[in-house]
Amino acid sequence: MLKLYFFFISLVGGVRAGAEEACPAFTGLGISSALIGTDLRVKLMLYTRQNQDCAETLTSTGSKYLNVTKKTILIVHGYRPTGSPPVWIQETVQLLLSAEDINIIIVDWNRGATTLLYHRASSNTKKVAEFLKTVIDQMVADGASLDSVYMIGISLGAHIAGFVGQMYDGKLGRITGLDPAGPLFNGKPLEERLDPTDAQFVDVIHSDIDALGYREALGHIDFYANGGTDQPGCPQTIFSGNEYFKCDHQRSVFLYLASLRKSCNITAYPCDTYRDYRNGKCASCEAFQPMPCPVLGYYADKWKSYLTLKNPPVTKVFFDTSEEKPFCLYHYFVDIITWNKDIRRGFLIIKLTDQAGNTAQSTVNHEVATFQPYSQASLLAGFDQDFENIARISLAFSTGNVVGPKHKLRILQMKLRSITNPERPQLCRYDLVLLENTETTFKPVPCQNI
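^ Lipase H, sequence as received from the core. Prediction below:
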């Protein structure tokens, strides 16, 4: 059993029989290894519900815990410039095993990914993919189905998963790419990167497309967190050190983990651009009916049948998040019918208060809104708390000017309607005047048709 696996492992210098650790750990290296570079060695650590606290290294003596009749998830990390183990391993294992009785294989290629020269790590990706194919081949020979093989790849690992999928002509069950690497891959042809033909279902979360991540769509569905660029709560200056470089890129992993906690569903909306989404032009889920709009992460495959039948089978969806776990925002449209004689340009700050006195303020920083005379403007607002019963709404209008006269925004009707929970009653207020930079609080009433 696993003979092909151990033949290949001898070629890349993996774990040798008799050298297993009592409770194996991911290979930890230091900056010295990064300076001199590391030769590729691959180590596989298996977790199941029977050994979820202590990995089993797959060795020549066979596996005590691997059950090839169950789904197998292979998790492949990316570039490790300093050699430290990924911080997300244990949490990922625990959450996945809580969700489903499966095999989880952590693919440790830290020896090969640890180097200050990114192109050296990148050049190892196809070698790692060839290695993983021998492992999957043996699993299939032992009774596994390709349908039940699911690969999760982070950064360079996403392209490794894509290369494995290519070798199986797209017959793997699923690939999830978590902020697939951009440098040395942007603009490459399909065979040189992850793409929708690499598995029966390919979903991707983008969180750093302006730096370390891949900008364009790579899957059947591509989720762009906060437009795919700057993530809330991440450092904005280089003075924050290493966190400045990795925080946005790493956010894709933590968003995926948030989906496993199920404390809330992070819903995303199909749109051509993030700007259109932020301007409230893309909050419809009609294209997915009778399903709602898709949620990102582990349960995204519930939309597989719709997404894979599209022509072309590519869907880009956008969503905003809060700064901290579980990252959820609860979205509302705020429809404003103005009663001004002149155009007003500015921002609206919106605060909701429930019956217990808890408050939530919109964390979506819109572009300057234009309020045309006697017309409706629709603003998309996100709150990090969800109130089923809203007792009070506070509005503040600002043009952003610190000098000059204060302006008024006259409102004929304000309507608040939940996108996250569209079945909830819409709330309104009529005949309202907002004085610039002054918060106005009122009790909303059920909307009427006017």
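The chain has two domains: 3-319, 330-446.
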